[in-house]
Each structure stands twice: as C-alpha cells, then as structure tokens.
Amino acid sequence: MTGNELKELLDTSPAECHRRLMKEYGRYVYAIVFNKLRSCGTKEDIEECFCDVFTDIFIKFEYNEKYVNDIKGYIGTVAKHNAIDRFRRLSAANSHNAYTDEEGMAELVSDFSVDERVDSSELRRILLQKIKELGEPDTTILIQKFYYNRKSSEIAKTVSMTASSVRSRCTRAMEKLRVKLAEVGITK
Q1: Quick check: 96 and 46 in contact, CB under 8 A?
Q2: Distances in Å between the alpha carbon of 92 and those of 52, 63, 88, 96?
Q3: What is the pLDDT of residues 84-140, one digit of tens each?
Q4: Residues 6+ positions from 2 with CB-CB distance below 8 Å
Q5: Cα gap 42→90, rounded to integer Å
Q6: CB-CB contact of 70 with 76 (8 Å)
Q7: How does pLDDT run across 39-64, given as a tens digit for each residue?
Q8: Residues 184, 123: Cα–Cα separation, whole Å
Q9: pTM over 0.85
C-alpha cells in the first residue's frame, strides 16, 4: 500500500482502510512489538501495544511525500517507537528501587556462587541438547510448554495438531526425555 492509497482510503472509507492495513501490515507490526516486549510484557501488553500502533497510524497520519511509494517504513517506525515506549513503562513498573545506606551495604553478603552458576548452566545445556535429540514435533512441544509456559491449545495451533494430541505427545516426550537424562546421570 502506498501513501496515496492510504490517504484516499482514509478519506473515503476508514473501515476499509483499517481492514487493509491490518491485513497487509498486521504480522509485520506484531513481530516488531513482540520482539521488543517479550522480555518484560504479558500477552495482553503486546496486544495492547499492537492496537495502539494502528490507532496512532489512523489518528496521527499526515500525508508526506516520503510515503508516496510505500508506507512500510512509516508503519515500522510507529511500531518501533510505541514498543520502545511501552517497554520503558513496563520496565519502570517492574523495577523495584529500595533505599540503602552505606552501613547497611557493608553488611550484605553475596550469595552468588560461581560453582552453582556453572553447574546450572551446564545442566541447562545438557537438557536442551537432550530435548533437541527427541526430534520434531516433540522438541517444539516441550520448549513451548515448559520454557514459554504456553497452553496445549496454543501449542496445537503452531504444530497443526489437536490439544489432546499435544498433551499425549508431551507426556510421551517427557518419558523419553527422562530416559535420555538418566543415561547421562541426571535423575531429578
């Protein structure tokens, strides 16, 4: 869609303009927003930011010669700026600032253990390796379920299965994984 087409559609039929923009650029905008907010936002935060991007496009769009051929750059910029603003708000809301005096700081003892950190990262590496050895779609199902905390119905859509099939595959994959981990000495 070009800037001229967008301007014409906004003037003649805002509903049609909205539908075409969502159809043509929806995935593009969602990818930008998701990649920025996945570390600090919930699914609802991502969806809300996604809607805000298209709201801003409709409310604030002013025709400019830069958008004669393609408005993808404009839409990408609006999406990126909205996602960054939302990221900052969510990060500020999630951070906890506490007052500490210098005497109190001296009493703090670090509970950071290099050995524990190395052990846990090695365990994580082995676990991911064994999950990948299971093959598809078991790898995808386990990673989506336990790393991304997705529901069976959500996973089912991505792997083109039913939710009950995903649950069955997950149970079987966990048994296979348990055996593979026991082979390398990991039992719990």
Answers
A1: no
A2: 19, 34, 6, 8
A3: 999 998 888 776 544 455 555 555 555 555 555 555 677 788 888 888 888 888 888
A4: 67, 68, 69, 70, 71
A5: 10
A6: no
A7: 888 889 999 999 999 888 877 776 55
A8: 11
A9: no
Q: The domain 3-94: what is its CATH number?
A: 1.10.1740
Q: For residues 173 and 142, is the Cβ–Cβ distance under 8 A?
A: yes
Residue at 7: amino acid letter? K
E strands, the chain, where? none
**Alpha-carbon span 112 to 47, nearest angstrom:** 37
Q: Where are the domains of the chain?
A: 3-94, 112-183
The residue count of the chain comes to 188
Distance CA 89, CA 49 (A): 12
Q: What is the largest CA-CA distance in the chain?
A: 69
Indicate the CATH number for domain 112-183. Answer: 1.10.10.10
Phi first, then psi: what are they for 114, rounded to 5°? -65, -40
- One-letter amino acid for residue 120 of the chain: S
User: Quick one: tokens of 64?
Assistant: 């400019």
